[in-house]
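Before the break, one more example. Copy the sequence into your notebook; we will annotate it together after we see the structure.
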Amino acid sequence: MDGDISAAIKNQLCRRLEFAEEVPSIEPVDKQISKQDNGPSEIDSYTNYATSIHANLSDEVIPRVGMEFDTEEDVYDFYNKYAKDVGFSIRKSKGHKDLHGHWLNRVYCCSCQGTRLKDKRDDDVKCHRPETRFGCLAVLKVSRINGKFQVTKFIADHTHVLASPSKRMFLRSQRKINLAQVAELEIADRSGLAPKESVGFLARKVGGIENLGFIPEDYSNYLHTRRTKEIKVGDTGGVLEYLQNMQHDDPNFSYAIQVDLDDLITNIFWTDGRMKLDYESFGDVVCFDTTYRKNKEGRPFALFVGVNHHKQSVIFGAALLYDETCNSFMWLFDSFSKAMSGKKPFTILTDQDAAMAKALASQWPETYHRLCVWHMYQNAAKHLSDVFERFSSFTKDFSSCVYDYDEEEDFLSAWDQMLAKYNLENNSWLQKQFELREKWALVYGRQTFCADMSTTQRSESMNNQIKMYIGYNYDLLRFFHHFERLLADRRYEELKADFKNNQSKPSLPYPVEVLKHAADVYTLTVFKDFSKEIWLTWDCEMHIIESIGTITSYKVISSGKNRHHFVTFDSSNSTINCSCKKFEFAGILCSHAWKVLSFQNFKRIPNQYILKRWTKEAKIGVAINSSMSTRSNDPKVDVGSRYKTLLRWYSHLAARASMSEQSFDIAMSDGEKTLSKVETTLKQLSIEESFNMCSENKIPQADETEQIKNNGKKVKGVKCKPRRKGDGLSIRPKNALEKATRKRNRRGEQSKKSVREKDEIIDSDVLNSCVQHISPYIQAQMPQAEAPQRESSEEK
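Here is what the structure looks like once it is written out:
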């Protein structure tokens, strides 16, 4: 019975409403006569309005029977221009073709022509779209006579309200994004501007959105269509096409792709000519690090980062990896060295990754591998958290072991004392770190040049900057385009620093000769570090230990420090050596060495202690052939390039011509003549059709994508990382505040749940006591026949 009731309810809910056909009501004759007597009908008012518009138009823009046109496109453009002046939208209607596919006749009508057809699915639709067809009578018919299209029929009457001039920008046939606007919008999109901001910028340039020729929805549809086409190409075709175009534009652009046994792309590495030039000048020290959540696929993103002569971070190469295994890193390091003509860095800094260390030992055994001290502190805070909490002095002792000692014996002694002081002799993590001490302790790395870097913070800082340019939900192709923005901004900062160095000099508090020499040689940033060492010499104490021949030994003590440094000076060749090894590690002389040099009356920096990488001429003498091509195989790229060239020139023309009324009139008259010539040329060349054909044929299909080859192998696609439950690759990463709020909410829910459980226990106890109290009264009033049923209910 319950099943029958539920079925009946279901049928009642799913029953369609049936509507009887509406019978038209017949009004009395006297009412019809009164309507006619009151004035003209609604259709007559629309016709009269169109006629009044015709009175304000010239005869050349109003269609008339007998007019002739060369092509069918000319007919559409003429009628569409007339429709814009009147206030309606047009569309192409029926027509007939001959055996060769040429039009014999064609009909163009108002977009409101006809009525909406009845659809059998109308009963399932809850809310219909508004009606846009009103049976409009406006029509233009042309027939091909003697090779030309001649107007054989024209009706100007409308059955609907015509659009006013302020609303005509919404008419469908009047909205179109031209090629120049496409080029400018592409630039805006790749510059990271939102669609609304891009359209607003273009609208302000032309004096308002009504003069733009399209509305924001058209641009959103264009972006959707373009990205849909990119999806059809797929990551494989899009990425390979991007890399090939970059190589075509920059002959020094290099990329490498690794495929698996199924011919799917796993790893991608790329570098351009400017990166190679920077590596040639500053590639002695490299920071390497990987990061996640920089693309939609969740691939690890790897960066080779260095430091230039302004002490700014500079990128040498980038890679998108499938995983962080030893094989992936071995392939990446090998591809990087091949792209850099076999040159390998002198020093590389990484985090404590076992697979990375194994790959470096295999591919770059001669490169000195240093571990990031910052990562080591992070791991120490994790593994020795109780020690940090109990002993406030442990941080200072641990840091002293990392940085302060010049001799290995002193370091080993301080390490043993630290372990004994805090009872950490049996700590497994510290034992493991001690085995790797030559990669992180500064006492072992002072004699190795590291450009004054002991951490991979430059890579970490670059990863943080990437967040400003690249979203976690970007596909691979958008990732590449927006990565170019990061490179452009970094190179702009370097160019600005170069200009500042060429056009200014540091202010010297005292006209000291050595500072004057340093200001002429070093960049402004390096000069600040050098001047600090000069000022520190005044607080240093110097004592002569011994002098043997031309070699003299000194003991230098810095102010406020108990430790001392040993400095050795050879007067025969003006060489100096300090136990702190600052010059070997950072590339500039330390304050201890300058204390001795000032004692020896040195007024200039010895030439052997000036590293070219820190000077203003660091890039002079290093060049890579980077001849640029002015023409590509893509017509769309050529249009964009020509548009940007014309835009720069005409922007300058507009700025100059607007200065006076006479120059403005000259520019306008010549501009109209130039525009007329351009339109005539485009008409003859049919540039619009050729561009559309090229753009349609430009997108490779799936079978064409499979034909793209890499090192003689067919590439079938990009290997996607398998997604497991909980990966959250498509979910926006939560910040610390959101995580804390979520944790707080979870604790609140748990406390509420415990309170509910306690309340349920209390309620059950109260209920049981109530049942015990009232059961005698119930049993006294219940009939005897219901006694068995009562017993079974009590058992329940």
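The mean pLDDT is 77. The first strand starts at residue 68 and ends at 69. Try to locate both features in your own notes.
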